[in-house]
Amino acid sequence: MEFRKIIGAAAFGATVVAASLASAQEVNVYSLRQEFLVAPLFEKFTEETGVKVNVIFAEKGLVERIKQEGANSPADILMTVDISRIQQAVDAGVTDSLSNDVINANIPAHLRDPEGRWFALTQRGRAIYASKDRVGEGEITSYEDLADPKWKGRVCTRSGTHVYNVALFASMIAVHGEEKAQEWLEGLKNNLARKPQGNDRGQVKAIKEGVCDIAIGNTYYYGKMLENEEQRPWAESVNIVFPNQNDRGMSMNISGMSLIKDAPNRDNAVKLMEFLTGDVAQKIYAEVNYEYPVKPGVDWAENVKSWGTFKADKLPLADIARLNPDAIKMVDTIGYNE
């Protein structure tokens, strides 16, 4: 397996010769997911099929790169995270539609594009982290509770325009309508202990340090903090709360994949996409990053199981993608980040 690491837009000037990557027994993946997450999957795929996987990894800019390369792009598959970023690839016109019985059978309809332009690979929940010392069990149970005035000065979040929060806010619009969702967001803003800043782990650290009592963060960060000696005390200071278990369930986001338009190795690309949605790959992929498989029936990692089971929101992610611009506008309208 060949990895080429590209960082940022400055790499656009570098020419990738399609002929050097494409062959009958190869497939080319452009990945925004880190190397350690995808390498075990591709190694297993090559072992089973003999098809070599070439990977170009970047922290950003791959959609623009594919668009710039045009019909001569060597890219077969794009792998990325968050429904917002996946939709950006669709909007840029670099993805192709795929109707595949194997993939459709493996991935529930709400976790794939109705037109086959993207498919979920793993799930992560948007959870609530609550101080063990200062928040009683059952004291907060839903996203709606975050706007309750009782939490004034006690909530921390990252930027309201970060894609993780945008997806959550879009789901609130889908459930409650724009007017009530904006009222809720204003309530959440009024409860902030500080200006939105940092990343999800930074919010849990702030709880440990007494800056706030409640935060919003993706579920997999709980596992990442527990495995990090410095960050373990942060995780141990909180309970992870799965919101809205009495109604719609916890809001979910995804990592996903898309078939690229004019993929030079289309048959191998489809073969890899089928593999990635199967039992073996689903278990490996979910385990390495403390995520949840998208294929029903695939067992969760043991450490993830220990956090407890939950009801997941089945809101179609295509609806969230459609409402993302409205969520961003709402954040700007109320000055959430100010």
Provide a concise account of the structure shown:
It comes from Thalassospira profundimaris. By secondary structure, the protein is of the alpha/beta class.
Structural account:
It is built from 14 helices and ten strands. It has 338 residues and is α/β, with parallel strands linked by helices. The chain folds into two domains: 2-123 and 253-305, D-Maltodextrin-Binding Protein, domain 2 (3-Layer(aba) Sandwich), CATH 3.40.190.10; 125-251 and 313-334, Periplasmic binding protein-like II (D-Maltodextrin-Binding Protein, domain 2, 3-Layer(aba) Sandwich). Helix 2 links the parallel strand 2 and strand 3. One of its GO terms (cellular component) is outer membrane-bounded periplasmic space.
Based on the model shown, name its key terms.
Iron ABC transporter substrate-binding protein, 14 helices, D-Maltodextrin-Binding Protein, domain 2, signal, 10 strands, 2 domains, alpha/beta, ten-stranded mixed beta sheet, 338 residues, single chain, iron, metal-binding, globular
Question: What does the secondary structure layout of this molecule look like, with pairings?
Answer:
Blueprint (H helix, E strand, L loop, with lengths): L1 E5 L11 H4 L4 E6 L3 H15 L2 E7 L3 H8 L7 E5 L1 H9 L9 H6 L12 E13 L23 E2 L6 H14 L1 H13 L9 H9 L5 E5 L1 H7 L5 H5 L1 E4 L10 E8 L6 H11 L2 H10 L3 E2 L8 H4 L11 H18 L4
Parallel strand pairs: 1-3, 2-3, 2-4, 6-7
Antiparallel strand pairs: 4-9, 5-7, 5-8, 5-9, 5-10
